[in-house]
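INFO  loader      accepted 1 record
INFO  loader      residues=120
INFO  predictor   begin
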Amino acid sequence: MSPTHTDNLKSNLSEAGSHLKRAAADTAEAVRGAAAAAGEEMRLGKANLKADLADGAIAGLSALEEAAGAGSEQVDQLMEKGRDLIDSAADLIRERPIASFGAAFAAGWIIAKLARGSNR
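INFO  predictor   done
INFO  writer      dumping tokens
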């Protein structure tokens, strides 16, 4: 007896069900593999992020230390220029005491006038 249409339908549906079952199993396996790979990528990315942040912090601390040294150098240079200026003023006063007194008197008079003018 030859198979009927109903028998063929059942056979085809059974085969289709088997294929769908296998496709579902393959999909689940692919998702598990992708999740494992994503997890590994996340761990690697997290490690790289930590390393980059640590390197950035070290570089920032080094820059801060250099800034302190640079600031100290600038203060030293300004102090040296101030000493040179005071020495120059002292030399000028020794060379021309009367002219220096006159300049100091004039500067004081101008400052006093400006101070009195701003009070009014």
